[in-house]
């Protein structure tokens, strides 16, 4: 019992501390670094927390002789850092926002990289009885039953997907226990667990948290729950400091068969998290 | 610079339009920290002044501990409150987690050492003639105590203001046990962090400016109540 709470607390503290760290990293620009030796990449917290980047980035760093600095935040802030020229690369999952970013001229190249999946998790006794339903209908049923539902409410990729699921179902009904907490996925899962509530999460964060919470996945496989990741090279035109040549190399690397195989073979607790989009099926 | 001027403009806009979400977060921040500081003052001022004048063995140890406790990291206090009020914690049954009340409790714990330590300092450094005069005039212990508080009021006011400043800006407790829930537990500090995470830097700065506005008002009101016109 006590160890569980301690584990909780440690996870929460770590996510808070790392959150604070990224604020600072976001504001600072590389000073006195020889040009082109450092590549700054903004990623969503889900990619960092899963450990995928720890499997990919060192391989590139060794091959290219470039140091990659990772700044993890929500999709909204990651794109904003790209827009203001504080990073060279952006790896996010919010297709619509990515397209807007490109058409506004903030990026020069965008590639699909991989996808992972969302799932709807909830208390094991499933008071709204949504198990194995289609996600759109399930959310409406949670609302009708007046059950507690946590919304990230932070314009992250996960939040945007939740909003799409509501609008596909004819909009979100108003009810008392729709709770917007404006926090990251790990914190939201912890809060939902405390109140035995439903929420939408990416599979990776759920796997990382599952030993510490009682919530279980209730809806896992549906086309509407696929979550594609894109990588964008920030346009060098507006900001002198953009390291676009190394950024281009990184994009070439991440869609190369070698990196795509690393993505396919990356597992947490024996489960695949990400599915590459540039790998021909091998028989 | 662009961000700063955008932020200032955004803050003005919120205040002029009385933007409901921002105004409610501002009032929530204000009442939560005021309540916490009020209770902390009721405990901290007597504790601090007693420690300054009482002659008990081991007093220095308590003073030392309170001074160390002034450095409590708010994330740490948030974690302790979480462990206590969590569903699986000893006081989980009270169902206080993710309510404003648990933020009040956490900020109270944050504020007491600050108020007690600074009050101790203010009363301890009073001219010894204050004590002698009070005794000569035949004041009893209670009257003497009121004399100390009254003579040290500038220092004690500073203690209360310092605690208030720490509480209204603190993020660790409000985020961890309050949960930044829209319309329930969102404070200016958690809203600032959230807007920053969203990449809405101007809105984040606007929240910061509104916090400073509140600090300005509170400082002015307390100064006026204290008749510190000559300062």
Question: Nutshell version of this structure?
Answer:
By secondary structure, chain A is an alpha/beta fold.
Task: Walk me through what this model shows.
- Chain A has helices at 2-27, 45-50, 52-64, 75-83, 95-103, 135-144, 157-168, 185-194, 203-209, 244-254, 257-265, and strands at 38-44, 67-73, 89-92, 107-122, 149-151, 178-180, 198-202, 216-219, 226-234, 267-268, 271-272, 275-276.
- By secondary structure, chain A is α/β, with parallel strands linked by helices.
- In chain A, the strands form two sheets. In chain A, strands 1, 2, 3, 4, 5, 6, 7, 8, 9 and 12 form a ten-stranded mixed sheet that branches. A two-stranded antiparallel sheet of chain A has the order 10-11.
- The longest helix of chain A is centred in the N-terminal third of the chain and has 26 residues, at 2-27.
- Chain A is globular.
- The termini of chain A are far apart.
- Chain B is globular, with a radius of gyration of 20 Å.
- The two termini of chain B are 34 Å apart.
- Chain B is built from eleven helices and no strands.
- Chain B has one domain: MetI-like (MetI-like fold).
- Chain B is an all-alpha fold.
- The A-B interface holds A 1, 4-6, 8-9, 12-13, 16-17, 19, 23, 73-74, 76-81, 153-155, 179-184, 187, 191, 193-195 and B 75, 79, 82-83, 86-89, 97-98, 172, 175-176, 179-182, 184, 186, 190-191, 193-194, 196-201.
């Amino acid at each position: 019992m006590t160890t569980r709470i301690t584990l909780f607390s440690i996870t929460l503290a770590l996510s808070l501390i790392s959150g604070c760290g990224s604020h600072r990293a976001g504001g600072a620009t590389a000073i006195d670094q020889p040009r082109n030796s450092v590549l700054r990449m903004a990623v969503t917290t889900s990619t960092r927390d899963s450990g995928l980047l720890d499997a990919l980035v060192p391989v590139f760093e060794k091959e290219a002789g470039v140091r990659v600095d990772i700044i993890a935040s929500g999709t909204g802030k990651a794109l904003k850092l790209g827009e203001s020229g504080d990073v060279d690369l952006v790896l996010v999952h919010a297709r619509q926002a990515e397209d807007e970013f490109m058409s506004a001229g903030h990026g020069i190249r965008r590639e699909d990289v991989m996808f992972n999946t969302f799932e709807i998790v909830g208390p094991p006794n499933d008071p709204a009885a949504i198990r194995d339903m289609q996600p759109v209908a399930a959310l409406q049923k949670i609302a009708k039953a007046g059950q507690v539902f946590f919304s990230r409410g932070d314009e992250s990729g996960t939040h945007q997907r939740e909003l799409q699921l509501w609008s596909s179902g004819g909009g979100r009904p108003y009810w008392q226990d729709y709770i917007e907490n404006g926090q990251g996925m790990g914190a939201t899962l912890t809060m939902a667990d405390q109140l035995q509530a439903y929420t939408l999460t990416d599979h990776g964060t759920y796997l990382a948290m599952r030993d510490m919470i009682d919530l279980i996945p209730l809806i896992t496989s549906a086309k509407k729950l696929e979550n594609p990741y894109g990588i964008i090279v920030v346009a060098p035109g507006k900001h002198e400091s953009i390291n676009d040549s190394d950024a281009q190399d990184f994009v070439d690397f991440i869609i190369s068969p070698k990196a795509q195989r690393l993505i396919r073979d990356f597992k947490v607790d024996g489960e695949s998290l990400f599915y590459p989009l540039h790998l021909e099926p091998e028989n | 610079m662009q961000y700063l001027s955008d932020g200032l403009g955004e803050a003005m806009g919120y205040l002029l339009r009385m933007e409901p979400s921002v105004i409610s977060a501002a009032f929530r921040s204000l009442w939560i920290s005021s309540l916490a500081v009020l209770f902390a003052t009721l405990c901290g001022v007597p504790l601090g002044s007693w420690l300054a004048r009482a002659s008990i063995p081991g007093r220095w140890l308590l003073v030392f501990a309170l001074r160390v406790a002034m450095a409590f990291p708010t994330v740490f206090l948030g974690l302790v409150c979480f462990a206590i009020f969590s569903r699986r914690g000893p006081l989980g049954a009270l169902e206080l987690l993710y309510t404003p009340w648990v933020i009040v409790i956490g900020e109270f714990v944050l504020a007491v050492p600050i108020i007690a330590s600074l009050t101790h300092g203010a009363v301890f450094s009073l001219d010894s003639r204050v004590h002698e005069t009070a005794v000569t005039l035949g004041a009893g212990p209670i009257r003497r105590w009121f004399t100390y508080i009254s003579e040290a009021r500038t220092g004690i006011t500073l203690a209360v203001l310092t605690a208030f400043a720490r509480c209204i800006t603190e993020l660790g407790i409000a985020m961890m046990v309050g949960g930044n829930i829209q319309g329930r537990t969102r404070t200016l500090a958690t809203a600032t962090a959230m807007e920053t995470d969203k990449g809405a830097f101007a809105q984040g700065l606007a929240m910061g400016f509104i916090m400073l506005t509140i600090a300005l008002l509170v400082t002015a009101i307390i100064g006026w109540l204290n008749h510190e016109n000559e300062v």
